[in-house]
Each structure stands twice: as structure tokens, then as C-alpha cells.
Amino acid sequence: MGRKWNNIKEKKASKDASTSRIYAKFGIEIYVAAKKGEPNPESNGALKFVLERAKTYNVPKAIIDRAIEKAKGSSEDNYVELRYEGFGPNGSMVIVDALTNNVNRTASDVRSCFNKNGGSMGVSGSVSYMFDSTAVIGLVGKTSDEVFELLMEADVDVRDIFEEDEATIVYAEPDQFHAVQEVFKNAGITDFTVAEITMLAQNYVTLAEDAQAQFEKLIDALEDLEDVQRVYHNVDAED
């Protein structure tokens, strides 16, 4: 199970190296979530989730506040949530989630990334059936046995609990995300190494060195697109 967490870590580390880009993407995501309902995380579950994830990426409070204030105002920026599915080198699988105010631009940009980097776009459902939507929460300071006991006492079911690189990782159903976090917060744990709902592949593949290099170029190109928020795939991170 650890290989899946490895992919999340690698992706997060890569994103951390380009903080201004990540902060800009979070600004849009927070704005869209705040526009969906009340611009208050206590009454807006979508906004609460985005803010929890933003905390693990150290998004500055100023960016969060600016996005929420914009949502409170008269801004007419309208964003559409889109998902693209495709194949990378050697049949590797890729899912791309985007938020855009220009659907034609985003579709063209994503398609171009695939075509220029040894991949191809697929139809809706061609890849996603091989992934599971999963809540992932990581913390330090508690062993897997201690985490299991906390969750059991609170009667909260999860998919898996394991330890990796000094962190304890919990996989749960997406609708259990906040319930799991509340258990930890009630135990005095407020800082998480990861707190997000992601798409985990059911099976991971390892690419040969040349295919791996081309695959990484594809992922980097997709993540560099302004409209792309998240990229998921089924390729093992290199050891």
C-alpha cells in the first residue's frame, strides 16, 4: 500500500517547488468553493475541505482571505469543473481535473500536452474506472495501532491504516474525510502531512527509463497549465 502514498508524496514535493503556481491554483479553487454556498467553511463543506487541503500546502492566509472576499463580492468570474482522461507512454493512465473559464482553451491545451508527450486523450470513463476516489489523511506522532484505536473508539470505519516515512497514513471513503479529521482533532492533532481526497489507481505500473522520462515531461506539462488543478496517474514514483 505504501507505493500509492509514495506517488502522492512525490507529486506534492514537485508542486512545492513551484509555490507561486500552486498558490494561484488554490486561489481559484477557494473562490469557486466559496461561490458554491456561504463563504464560511463552517456552513460550506466544499470550502472547508479546500481550506483543509490548502493548510497542508502552507497557502498564505492573505491568499485565502483574498479569494473568499472576492467570492463575497460581485465578481462575475464563472468557472467550470472538467475532468479529462488519457493515456501516457506505454499505456500509463492519467486523469486531469481542471477549473476553467474557457472550456475550448483548456481542452485544446490538455490535448496538446498529451499529443506532444507521447500520450493520447481518451473518452470519459476510459481511465477513471481503474481509480478509486479516496480520502487520504496523514499525521505524525501516532502509530498505526494508536490511530486504529482512536478511530475504533469513535466508531469511524476506514479502508486502511499504515506507517511510512515517520507518518501514519489513513485511507477512507471520501464521505468519511471530515469524520476522520474530527477524531484526530478531538485527540489534539491539528497538523496533517496530507489531507485531501485523491484518485488512487487500483494497480500501479513501472516504466522503463526512457518511457519514465517522457511520462514525467507529460505530467509536468499538464501541471504547468493554468487551468489544471490536479493530475492523477498510475505510475510508480521512482525509489
TrEMBL record:
One of its GO terms (cellular component) is cytosol. SUPFAM superfamilies: YebC-like. Its main location: cytoplasm. InterPro entries: Integrase-like_N, TACO1_YebC-like_2nd/3rd_dom, TACO1_YebC_N, Transcrip_reg_TACO1-like, Transcrip_reg_TACO1-like_dom3, Transcrip_reg_TACO1_YeeN, YebC-like. One of its GO terms (molecular function) is DNA binding. Residues 79-235 form the TACO1/YebC-like second and third domain. It holds the Pfam family Transcrip_reg. Residues 3-73 form the TACO1/YebC-like N-terminal domain. GO terms for biological process: regulation of DNA-templated transcription. It comes from the Bacteria. Keywords: Cytoplasm, DNA-binding, Transcription, Transcription regulation. It is found in: Cytoplasm. NCBIfam families: PRK00110.1, PRK12378.1, YebC/PmpR family DNA-binding transcriptional regulator. Belongs to the TACO1 family. YeeN subfamily. This is Probable transcriptional regulatory protein GNP93_26355.
